[in-house]
Amino acid sequence: MKRLFLFVPAILLVLFLLNSFVLKEKAAGDKTTTGTKSVSATIILRSADGGQTWQDISKGLPENLQRTGVWYHGLFANDRGLYVRAGNGVYHSEPNSTTSFWTKEIFPGKQRDIAPGKNGIFAYDFRGQFLKKINGTSDWSPMYTDFQEQAVRIDKTVDWMYKNYKAREVRSVFETAGGTVLISSNNGLFRSTNKGKTWEQVQVGDGAMRLAESNGVLLSTSNEGILRSTDDGQNWDRVVSEGGAGIAVEPINGGFAAIVHNTITQTNTIHISLDSGKTWNTIGEELQPSWYRSFITKISGQSSLNVFSIKQAGKYLICGRADGIYRSADMGKTWKLLLPSVKNMGFNLSVSGNVIYAIPNKGC
After folding, report:
1. Which residues contact residue 145 at a Cβ distance below 8 angstroms, ignoring those fewer than 6 apart?
2. Are 129 and 188 in contact (CB under 8 A)?
3. Spatial distance between the Cα atoms of 168 and 126, rounded to a whole number of angstroms
4. Using one digit for the tens of pLDDT, what is the confidence trace for 183-205?
5. What pTM does this model have?
6. N or C: which end of the chain has fewer CB within 10 A?
7. Spatial separation of the C-alpha atoms in residues 115 and 209, rounded to whole Å
8. Neighbouring C-alpha atoms within 13 Å toward the C-beta of 216
9. Phi, psi of 243 (to 5 degrees)
10. What 8-state DSSP symbol labels residue 168?
């Protein structure tokens, strides 16, 4: 009994000291990161040297984006540069631009989500109202006008979306290199091989899907991990699963990178495949929160330091964590912090060739 009385206060003392240390560490971190005013007010940062140096290219974008942030599906980067949907326009920055220069095109609709297409840009909203602009043109044309009628007929689920709009909720649109269009809905994945004339449902029961393609192979996130298709999205097999949902999929040289939530450790783990998604290796152990950090996170209510994005820029893997942007030159064996975030808000990342775009996460 005497030992018990001595043991309990000892535990409480250790917890008190640990928590005090973390609070001091957090305060010091806040002081360091918030001291750089240009970073805290930044909308978009750009790096053309693998993340060694960063340029603020926010000038020319709507000022209210500094407060609201950029919507996740409101931007994308491809070989033509970075596109941002904001206000009444679509803003474009060339990939080789060395200045903060944006061209703005007035947008004719209210769709706030954009995505790259095979030969242009898609704009869409959650109700499934699609527009498309072909590269080199200025006109936005309605697309997939029969999608909702067919989707509701195929999927008869009566949910909130159906009760209010008699429609299926649209989460994303993806066009493969072969021209097949995949639309993820709240209840599954719809597929069209004839430019949207007819649709079929190919994946049932999971609408939170992000897709990527490399050398004719498709990958998608799902509620139970990562799915793979080798027949243009007709059939899917689960290739990575740790009990939790897939967070991200990205093409890299030779294959793919993926992030999956592990329900046992309650952390996000990084996986890469260098054979087009056939076999996978876990990387990024250095980025995983330590036992000490995970323990303090639970008892103090601090935000998690989970990884939530991964890209390849040239020879580097670039990873986003709540406390900043990390880089690996050896395919995930070791990592270096490149850019700390403000108050552990993290960054959303986009990559165009060797150019990295970092957008501070404002919670939008």
Report:
1. 130
2. no
3. 8
4. 999 888 999 999 999 999 998 77
5. 0.84
6. N
7. 14
8. 2
9. 95, -20
10. P
- At 225-239, the pLDDT tens digits run 999 999 999 999 999
Task: Return the structure tokens found at 230.
Answer: 């080798």
Would you state the structure tokens that stand for residue 249, as one six-digit string? 């999929």
Closest CA to 143 of 128, 126, 153: 128
Q: For residue 74, what pLDDT band results from cuts at 50, 70 and 90?
A: very high
Amino acid present at 354: N
Q: How many residues are present in the chain?
A: 364
Find the helix or strand (DSSP H, E) in which 122 lies: strand 120-124
| Alpha helices for the chain (secondary structure H) | 2-34, 37-40, 65-68, 147-154, 160-165, 291-300
Query: Amino acid identity of 72?
Result: Y
Task: Give the tens place of pLDDT for each residue, 306-325.
Answer: 899 999 999 999 999 989 99
Q: Which two tokens stand for residue 146?
A: 């029969």
The candidate with the shortest Cα–Cα distance to 222, out of 248, 193, 252, 255, is 248
- For residue 110, give both structure tokens: 């209210």
Instruction: Using the structure block, give the residue that is written with the tokens 């500094």.
Output: 66
What letter would DSSP give residue 138? -
Name the pairing type of β-strands 55-56 and 45-47.
antiparallel
Q: What residue type is 121 in one-letter code? A: I
Q: Give the other-Cβ count within 10 Å of 57's Cβ.
A: 21
Whether the CB-CB separation of 125 and 171 falls below 8 Å is answered with no
Report the C-alpha gap between 264 and 289 in whole angstroms. Answer: 14
Pairing of strands 281-283, 267-273: antiparallel
